[in-house]
Amino acid sequence: MTVISALGRHTGRIQQAIAGYGNLRAPSTTLAVIRILFGATMVVSCVRFISLGWIHDQYIQPMWHFPYDGFDWVQPLGATGMYMVFAIMLLAAICVTLGAWYRISSVLFFLTFTYVELLDKTYYLNHYYFVSIMAAMLALLPAHTAWSVDTWLRPRIKQNTVPRWMVDAVKFQISLVYIYAGLAKINYSWLIEAMPLRIWLPANDTLPIIGPLMTVSWIPWVFSWAGMLYDVTIPFWLMNKRTRLFAYCAVITFHTVTGMLFQIGVFPLVMSSLALVFFFPSQVKVEAGVPAVQSMALSPPRLQRVIAGVLGVHLVLQVLLPWRYLLQTNDVFWDEAGYRFGWRVMLMEKAGTALFSITDRKTGRTTYVNNSDFLNAHQEKQMAMQPDMVLQYAHMLRTYFSERGMVDPIIKADVWVTLNGAPGKQLIDPNADLSRMKMGWTSNEWILPR
């Protein structure tokens, strides 16, 4: 009974702590700042994507696409449809920034952006994944109840505070990105061999100011260790009021340098802007007898509990998902099982070549495939070094040639890959009939070990 009583008291204290935390408040302006920074960055991103002609190059011109597992039903909408999707996305991003018709615009932005990202895994980038996550989180939160067009049009929705857990959830998500990016760098190639920075840095010796440093022999090791230490610790420096300003200077320096050195799109802008949220208060004191919420804008308590539950489950999954590779592979950099959605940012220099042969099972006649007949250059580049995409492509070829009269075609691939400057090795068993292979969770004998 003593043990049961002690356990009961301990459980009671935990419940009290959770209830106490749930009653803490944060300024509504903190969520508004997150909304404005995120929305403005997305406006820039959308304009950049459209102006560079990537809608046509990535989603209209290619003959085939590489959908994610379970999302084969997500297909491009044709030229007119895709331009309409991006027009809606851009308009939604503008409205999110302004806090205009926020509940609708935030959901529209999440749906259109995520739809585009699901069309083709060729273009997977960590910051696109992060954008989808942030868009979903903001769609759930009342980020329009301060500094918004909505409060100007409907003053009754204005509020001074929001539950603190809403702000902390966003900060936790941002922190996870950094910490997992740092943990992923704790490996032999990155820290001991300084790879792939020993390849990448000397190629940037023409950059202004820092260019001459790029050819110094020991600089890759400095960058490797500094990058790892920065990622795993920067959230904690940003959380500390005494070190926050210096930490943010490090954020700006880090993302400016990486943006100059590597082609990583708007990722530096996204992370630099959202890191500002750590400067805004996470908590305010509410005087006794004064209601914390002074409007009707905040969701009813039951809906708030649902939102808290959804965010809680999401954040738990975010903590667990990057570790799934431990159940799938012994060499995540080689076969890339569990590589995506794990915040592995710029960790390897990998390239491959892939030659496919198609053999008619009835006649024995063999044809070799010109990949450029079916894929654009970037699709072919990514496919040739990622086993799951090699298999997808083989199945596409099987369908294509079967529809044109070839009987039960045999698909084989001669795929060679180089990783971090090492001599090329075969990635795929050249004798395996890929038309009959499937992608297993753990065992894929048609993928050769490094």
Give the ordered list of helices and strands: HEHHHHHHEHHHHHHHHHEEHHEE
Major sheet size, sense and barrel closure:
4 strands, antiparallel
Number of strands: 6
What gap, in angstroms, lies between the N and C termini? Answer: 58 Å
**Average pLDDT for all residues:** 92
Estimated helix fraction: 40-55%
What class do helices, strands and sheet pairing give?
Answer: alpha+beta
Strand content bin: 5-15%
Number of helices: 18
Strands of the largest sheet, in order across it?
Answer: 4-3-5-6
Number of domains: 2
Radius of gyration from CA coordinates: 25 Å
Which geometry do the CA atoms define?
A: globular
Instruction: Report the uncertain regions.
Output: 287-297
